[in-house]
Amino acid sequence: AKNHKISDLFRHLQVGQTECRKRRIWVGRVKLYISALRLEDGELLLVVSPMFNASAIRDYALRWEIETLFSCLKGRGF
After folding, report:
1. 10-27 pLDDT, tens per residue?
2. CA distances from 21 to 6, 45, 52, 72 (A)
3. Global pTM?
């Protein structure tokens, strides 16, 4: 098996574009599904999962909003 950088799999993505790989790839010793979003600063946001999820990036964004809300509420209270 040939090793590749994960970033190489998604180098074609433009800012705001997402891709969800339909085949699992080896990450270390585990086969996982990987989704990516090209961010405004050119970096990749990667979401890795043992199960296929075509909306992984969107689901992660929602979860991040909820985590941020809870963090604010915890720090400032109601």
Report:
1. 999 999 999 999 999 988
2. 11, 14, 8, 34
3. 0.77
Distance CA 20, CA 46 (A): 10
- Residue 1 belongs to some domain of the structure: no
Residue 44 within a domain: yes
24 CB-side CA count, 13 A: 11
- Domains identified in the chain, total number: 1
Domain that holds residue 42: 6-76
Q: Assess if residue 13 is contained within a domain.
A: yes
Per-residue pLDDT tens over the stretch 26-78: 888 999 999 999 999 999 999 999 999 999 999 998 888 898 888 888 887 65
